[in-house]
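Researcher: Before we compare anything, I want clean individual predictions. No alignment, no superposition, just each chain on its own. First chain goes here; please echo the sequence and then give the structure tokens.
Model: Echoing the first chain and its structure:
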Amino acid sequence: MKMLHRPALTFLSRNSVAIALALVCMLSLQACSPRAFVRPPLETASLDSLPQPIHSVFLIGDCGKPSAENEPVLELLGRMTQQAGKNSTVVFLGDNAYDAGLPEQGHPDRPEMERRLLAQTKSVAESPCSRFMIPGNHDWDLMRPGGWNAVKRQEEFVEGSWAHGNTFRPDGGCPGPSVARLAPGLTLVMLDSQWWLHTHQKPGKSQGCTADGEMDFVQALRDTLAHYQQDRLIVAAHHPIWTYGTHGGHFGLKYHLFPLLMAKKNLFVPLPVLGTLAVWARKCGGTSQDCSHPRYRRYRKALREVFADHPGLIYAAGHEHNLQYNREGRVHHVVSGSGTKSQSVGHGKWCQYSRGNKGLARLDLMPDQSVVLKFILLSGACTINYARALE
């Protein structure tokens, strides 16, 4: 049999690698498409027959990198809150200034970070709605030692911009809980989940907070929810408890091939073996911002135990750049972190809906005290992609 010369073998080897890479790319793009997952049987709310809501709550997170021009989702938010009127509330769910929050005056990044925050505060400036903003991990100086000061700077700037009183919650970098009674029968409880995850200096009881440590925080939350247990409860924080995005360990094939995408969008540098190692490191708790990390696991466990005593409670979070509705028993988990970014998302046991599009979530409290969840997508024209009554 005639043997192939070395150049021919090299040519075949290179072709094989190219074909393999092309297949992986095709599979990655398919696996990470923004198509929705909806768990059947789908029992959606009939939008035509719904009465006027008593109060509407708009949930939008991770808005910290709006475009230099008008950001489409923020424009959509402004229009919807004006239509909803005074019986509405907006909650910005953290990561309000990428990548490291609001720096000190005189820092070269200060003007750009102010612009990013103002894009959010101005989006609802003409609306009569109530408005709140909570911090995320990026607002804590990207989890670095200066995080507490960065959060206090952002609080001062945001409340000065809005001029609507105590709108940045919880106060002073404290963990909360911070309570706002939105309407008769509807209470919003706001938490700073990064306080729990932060390993550097942070405030405690001597600074006016309710907690010095994890157990204090849990007890304060338990007492607060018990006090308002007759109301429909919405608990808002940055970090989700249930998620089928990357922070929950769900990575598409593209991350195995292009692991640098975990750090920066569009950084398509093929590192297939290192990519798989990086994915497994994340799955095994390599960062405090992932559900698999021991500190994050304690947070999830503690809140799940508290929430189990409050059927019907809705926990709203950002952190993941997608839209999700997950349900554990009668506790509802809404993820709405695609205000200015979008990212692929998977699904699993608790998932009822997931989609990797830009958009926001809306909760409508109805006259019978039921709540209707809606996801509003920004895809060409804004559309209500999903609507469901939450028992």
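Researcher: Okay. Second chain, same rules.
Model: Second chain and its structure:
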Amino acid sequence: MSKSVSGITQRNKRSIQEVKRQRHDDNNEKGNRSEESRNSSKDNQPPGRHDSQRAATFGLWFVGVVGVLFVFFLFSLVFAETTVTVYPETADISINEMYTASNNSDVNSVPFSIITVEDSVAVNATTTGTEYREESASGEITIYNDYSDDTIRLVPNTRFQTNDGLIYRVREAVSIPGQSSNGEPGSITVTVYADESGEEYNISNTNFSIPGFSGTVYEDGVYAETAGSISGGIAGDIPIVSTSTRQTLQEETGTELEENLRKSLANDLPEGFILYEDGIFFSSHISTSKNDEESTTALTVDGEVRAIVFDARQLSSFLATNYSNDVSSQADVRIQDLHDFNFQITDRESLTPNEGASFEFMLEGESQIVWQYDERALVRDLRGLQKDRLNEVLVNYDSIQEAEVVTRPFWKQNLPDDAADITIQTVINR
């Protein structure tokens, strides 16, 4: 607005600061109007667009949760397992006693078996000349009584004949044990000597009949077979090797032979049998030399290891029933770590280890008696069983103290129907 005074027009004057403040206020007002306009635009959007966004977010979460649950379900199926941990009945045992080992069916003795392994090594020796020599072959045979459960006695010099007509004799009287209660033939191993000298009497893997029983009731029921090799027979010139040389060769080669035979014995030991160090017997024999050259000859050192072994089940049952009246003779038990017990044969030097022998031994050790159970039968009884009914099955197993079941996934309440899917784990309480 302007005023005119005396023809002069006068305008309102503003300072520069006022102008700036005005512009600033104008800008702020425009900004506020712009923000209000945007907010108003948002508020005025259609409602369906908001619902679509929320639905999309919910769908993503739902798919994720379902995916995780599906993966977890597959994982539980792939890694599903059922383990039944069994705690059998146990009892402590501590023994330091003298016992008798015999195969005469005496309930007061422990039955045993003999395992034999053999090998030979050829060595060269320097000769000192030749000489004519006649020697009879000798070796061991096993005589069987498959006729009756009564002992059969053979007189000294009883003859044994091969299919080729070779005759061998025992020098002492022999008593052959009768058949066992389960019908197994009684047997005894003895030494026989060839009737004549000569190399043809050196044999192995041969069967024998007893000419004196020909035409009698014993003819087919009493027989024999070689228990190793029969050797040493000769008739002719042989190279001479000094006694000291032969002895040295036999000792040196015998050490190597014994080591190898012991390894073979350990590898060939039947499962379930126990072998003690004091039950191993080694013997060696150096054969009569053969004249290969004028200055040297080949000798053969034959080695043999005989081992007394025990069936772990029979030995455990015998020791447990003799130790405690609480162990029935019909109970199936095992003594833990029985092979670690101290075992010593009384009068070992005079013992000739064979199936018909009888000897005393000292056994000392501490361990546990563990009652055995039929694992296969238990698995069959557990198939498809509800976990909370486990005790209904265990009442039929007196040898089991307790058991527990773990299933994966944890929510499974029934054991698998397939026996192959049930794992049995035996734990011995110490």
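Researcher: What stands out in the second chain?
Model: The first strand starts at residue 3 and ends at 5. Additionally, DSSP finds six helices and 23 strands in the chain.
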